[in-house]
Design a protein that fits this description.
The chain is α/β, with parallel strands linked by helices and about 500 residues long. It is built from 15 helices and 25 strands. It has 2 domains: about 280 residues, Aldehyde Dehydrogenase, Chain A, domain 1 (3-Layer(aba) Sandwich), CATH 3.40.605.10; about 190 residues, Aldehyde Dehydrogenase, Chain A, domain 2 (3-Layer(aba) Sandwich), CATH 3.40.309. Bound molecules: adenosine-5'-diphosphate.
């Protein structure tokens, strides 16, 4: 069977991975002002692996006092200019070294992250250390290339527009792709000259702690990148409410996004950039240039990483004339995907991140069936004997636009299918959720492709492919998928203030 080419499988050495997975992970501390720091009250949190339920290690259960210390360190570092006013060429060299170190430690970072969050290693190696190194290099290159402006003002005046770093940036990261998503934020924030207080997800902190240690090894001055670990409701809230945090950059759920806006309103009205969920439509017309490739992409687009991908193509909309045949093919592909040990290089679907997430996924399936959906495959917990959390890829047909599974993000391996008759109906169905993150259209007709991509209100659309992108392309949500831009040079704007200076000459 033709599969999408992830292009990196041959870089993975199973023996090396097995050696790394056997390593004991020592208890983890936070990084505050360049020092390994326990929680202020000595609290720790146990970390379990979704692969087999085993306890991996502990992380510090950070407190609001830890956030105060980290923000104070970040602010001091910012104000004394050790990074914010370092010569741009020097800042660039440090970030290059940081990217090189990530690349040198790529397998170690990937295995550590997979033990913590359960993503299949074949995806994690590329999406995590691979993209993290690329993201850091991209913004490092921008440091001495993105300049301010001289405005075209009348004679006798000179107006300068400076791009000033904002100050202290709070970065709150989810558990699905900590290194990729974390570096979407810390790389442009550092390139712009800011200091950072980062909070990883409590259930996936290990690879980001290692990443921060590599930044330090690369020569990033103390206090510029601080990491506080622990609960969202404690550490995340303290960052959100802090009067000395100037900008918040977040990826996660809509519910937390709303809270961050409230924290901002209740404190210093800090800018909040939110990358939230998605319920992305994948629209397949009968004239798609390669229906087999479309079926493979439809399956990969929702089932890889057990659907725990914000841009997952979770709603398949298929032109009625090919609905039955195309759906059957997607089901066959889903059933052939190899689920299991995420650290086996041949695994195509790793673990669901947690018992809570798995229970939510299974609930969605039951509710969908109660609302009239027909389960064509999957919908079950599998491999329970491993002690880990795994779910079979699920295809639900006959899902109405009113059904909760059609409108809400599952964040699991659950695909809904709905036939359509006309391009107008496809656009209407595609837009029938509160989200607007991603999506795709499969057709050979350029006019149909253009009509659909203009009609669908989503930040990132694909034509005759799914999920293709790179760091040069903005990642931005519309509607309740969020605001602001990750990736591309536009992301730098989030982390600068424009200051204009008007001079009479
Ligand atoms: P998910 O459903 O993907 O876990 P969350 O929004 O719960 O999404 O988590 C994303 C990040 O937000 C995590 O780092 C989490 O700890 C953090 N978080 C959760 N609750 C809060 C909160 N009340 N305030 C700030 N951050 C939070």
């Amino acid at each position: 069977m033709k599969r999408l080419d992830w292009g990196i499988l041959n870089m993975l050495d199973q023996a090396q991975i097995d050696a790394l997975r056997a390593e004991i992970i020592p208890p983890q501390t936070q990084l505050i002002d360049g020092k390994k720091t326990a929680a202020s009250n000595g609290g720790v949190r146990d970390v379990f692996s979704p692969i087999d339920g085993s306890m991996l290690t502990t992380i510090a259960e950070g407190t609001s006092a830890d956030v105060d210390a980290a923000v104070a360190a970040a602010k001091k570092a910012f104000n004394d200019g050790r990074w914010s006013r370092m010569a741009p060429a020097n800042r660039k060299q440090i970030l290059y070294r940081f990217a090189d170190l990530i690349q040198q430690h790529a397998l170690e970072l990937a295995v550590l992250g997979v033990r913590d969050n359960g993503t299949e290693i074949s995806m994690a190696i590329k999406a995590e250390p691979g993209l993290a190194a690329q993201n850091i290099r991209y913004y490092a290159e921008a440091i001495d290339k993105v300049a301010g402006e001289i405005a075209p003002t009348p004679e006798g005046t000179l107006a300068l527009v400076h791009r000033e770093p904002v100050g202290v940036v709070g970065v709150i990261v989810p558990w699905n792709f900590p290194l990729m998503i974390g570096t979407w934020k810390i790389a442009p924030a550092l390139a712009a000259g800011n200091s950072i207080v980062m909070k990883p997800a409590e259930s996936a902190s290990l690879s980001l702690l290692k990443l921060a240690a590599l930044a330090q090894e690369a020569g990033l001055p103390d206090g510029v990148l601080n990491v506080v670990t622990g609960a969202g409701a404690v550490v995340g809230e303290a960052i959100g409410l802090h009067m000395d945090v100037d900008v918040l950059a977040f990826t996660g759920s809509g519910a937390t996004g709303r809270r961050l806006l409230q924290y901002s309103a209740a404190s210093n009205m800090k800018r909040c950039y939110l990358e939230l969920g998605g319920k992305s439509p994948n629209v397949v017309f009968s004239d798609a240039p390669d229906l087999e490739m479309a079926a493979i992409a439809a399956a990969n687009g929702i089932f890889r990483n057990s659907g725990q991908v914000c841009i997952a193509g979770s709603r398949l909309l298929v032109e009625r004339s090919i609905h039955a045949e195309f759906t059957k093919r997607v089901v066959e592909i889903a059933e052939a995907l190899k689920i299991g040990d995420p650290l086996d290089t041949t695994t195509e679907i790793g673990a669901v991140h947690s018992e809570t997430q798995l229970a939510q996924n299974l609930d969605f399936v039951l509710k969908a069936e109660a609302e009239g959906a027909k389960r064509l495959t999957g919908g079950e917990r599998v491999l329970q004997g491993t002690g880990g959390t795994y779910m079979s890829p699920t295809v639900l047909d006959n899902v109405t636009p009113e059904a909760s599974v059609f409108r809400n993000e599952v964040f699991g391996p659950v695909l809904t299918v709905k036939p359509f008759d006309t391009p107008e109906e496809a656009i209407h169905l595609a837009n029938a959720t509160e989200f607007g993150l991603s999506g795709a259209v499969w057709t050979s007709d350029l006019s149909t492709a253009h009509r659909l991509t203009m009609g669908i209100k989503s930040g990132m659309l694909h034509v005759n492919t799914y999920g293709g992108s790179d760091i040069t392309i903005p990642m931005s949500g519309m509607k309740q998928s969020g605001n602001g831009v990750d990736k591309s040079l536009h992301a730098l704007d989030k982390y600068v203030d424009l200051k204009s200076v008007w001079m009479k000459i």
